[in-house]
Specification:
Blueprint: H1 4-8, E1 25-27, E2 33-36, E3 45-46, E4 57-59, E5 62-65, H2 73-80, H3 83-90, E6 93-94, E7 102-103, H4 105-109, H5 118-158
Antiparallel strand pairs: 1-4, 2-3, 2-5, 6-7
Length: 168
Amino acid sequence: MAKQKSFDEGQIPKRELGATIKSNKFLIPSHAILLSKLNPRIPRLWLPVVRDSPRAICSTEFLVVLPRIKAFREFIYGLLSNEAFADVFETLVTGTSGSHQRVKPEGLLSMNVLLPDQSVIDHFSKVVQPLLARMDRARAESETLAALRDTLLPKLISGNLKLGVSHE
């Protein structure tokens, strides 16, 4: 499940049983982009990789952005991560509390965007897609290494696990 806290802790979704989730959630289609609507002065843009879960969900604090054409995903992600977009998006907040300002979906939909020709979008996506995939693989590898560290380190410190060290 994609939550604000999960994003802030390295963009790693947490696995939870559906029965334990008490609040509303959104399903995440495989080509979705998640844009936080909460406190947009802290940019949170997530390009989730929906692998093996037919029921990937996210907090309602994210806007689930679905490109009309799946091939536009990388382009839309680039657009949403642009500083100029973030500057305008931040002006769309509602709410009086500095810690709970939100952008309504209508605010995002009201923004004007200039789109380049299809050939430019295609070329951009072709170049950027492998880079984004590499970032996701690095994030997954980091998660695996952290889990391995968290499993082995206590055993090493307690002396329950000894490493054979060669003295050559």
